[in-house]
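Sync notes, pocket subgroup
Present: LS, DG
LS reminded everyone that the earlier model was apo-only. Rerun requested with zinc ion included. Inputs:
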Amino acid sequence: MSSNHIQRQRKFLQLTFQDYYIENADLVDIPAKLHNREFGMQLFSLTWRCDRKIIESDSGEQKEVGCGRSGTSYARILKCPFCDSKQLQITDWVRHLGFRTRDALLHELVQSAPHSVYHSAALYETPVARFMHEKNWRGAELIFDIDADHLDSKCTERHDSWICNDADCEESGMGPPPSDECPSCKGKSFSSRKWVCDDCLQDAKDNTLKLYDVFLSEDFGIDPEKIVLNYSGHRGYHVRVQDSKIFSLDSSARTEIVHYIEGTGFTTASFRSTVEQDDYKNPLVVISEKVPLPTSAVEKLSVPGWANRVSQAMVEFISDIDSYHGSERWVKVLKENKQEAIHGLKRTPPILSPRVKGIGDKFWQEISIRAVQSYGASIDGPVTYDLKRVIRLIGSINGKTGFKVNRLNREEIDSFNPFVDAIAFRGGTLKVHTLGGLVKIPAFKIDAEEYGPYGDEIVELPKPAALFLLCKGVANLE
Ligand SMILES: [Zn+2]
Ligand SMILES: [Zn+2]
Ligand SMILES: [Zn+2]
């Protein structure tokens, strides 16, 4: 695509987003304590600065390069337009922004109409300071990112694809790129194209609901009024806990919360073998568990621990054992005795049925560990324990899709369908050139209408479908 073409397309997207911010100011969520938040924006335009510095040539001669000027550009820029120096600093990001009022933020959104806009989960005394230590951290919301990227959904084999980056190699395939080398040229560099569909978004939703219902509401006892939910505008959901009693939690307390929620580190469900009158003699008793409890958080939140969830997790795991791909020795026996095992675990108190022959305490222990891990909610850990993360502004547009970052309440999320409810732009059609030459662009649904798959072709599509392809970077404006 020519430089002019890139410029035209970026400007077009920016103006489209601008219309949204002009017309939908009321959808933009103004974070609490706005003046303590740092904002960052990824723009459709690039900012470049021509570095002025002294360099030493091969012959040892010193000379000055660069003119110190700066500017913005919609096209990729390789050298300074004033002095031809190639020593340029180029970025499409602006960071350390701050807004004192709602109007100031909304004004900036209309002015910049950014590709993406984020704000800190943290509160700072001086959010606009350039360096972290000057910002003065004053606490942070507890945030969770549940992204299909981390869920290994089966559909990725169907819709993600890769191509080999070697110029002379045309190798490509579906699913994630080869973990070692290209089967044709032995190259090790690949470009991958990730897609999103109802199935992986449903996986993300299921994990979000588990986090919300089981862990935050039940175990942590957090008031639902203090939990904010939103669709990320792309492949997942965000959950933010805005309870001032957790604002001061440090990174290690937040790490413990992550481990607890994921069920990682759970190493010992212990089973007390007792002989009882009836033939059921193996009560499941969680005597000790090694999931680190959020000890620093525990004074503020009373967390009951995994004890009363182990049997529930085991029932869920065993019910789904037919789709488990592990090669442990207990898998076959468990598959054959699925109903019996579940029956025992559903009793009060739960027991490990001795009728499941061939599975002793050691195996039950292994099963319980697997079960806890698969029961835990999959979240992107670093987002939660990094105290300086930024998170998308609710009500903004996600430039990777052109979808809205929707705020949702607990009732709304059940029936929420991103491919309908997050559509930001409707009306009219656009002609686009789809870039599915080597590997076709997978089919997708917008407003219940199915589009694609597309190869290398020119198609006229309804605006939301066309914008989705443009934002995903798999089509150009014709
Ligand atoms: Zn210059
Ligand atoms: Zn190759
Ligand atoms: Zn999918």
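DG: Residues 198-219 form the longest helix (22 residues).
LS: Residues 50, 66-67, 69, 80, 82-83, 85 surround zinc ion (ligand 1) (CB under 6 Å).
Action: DG to write up.
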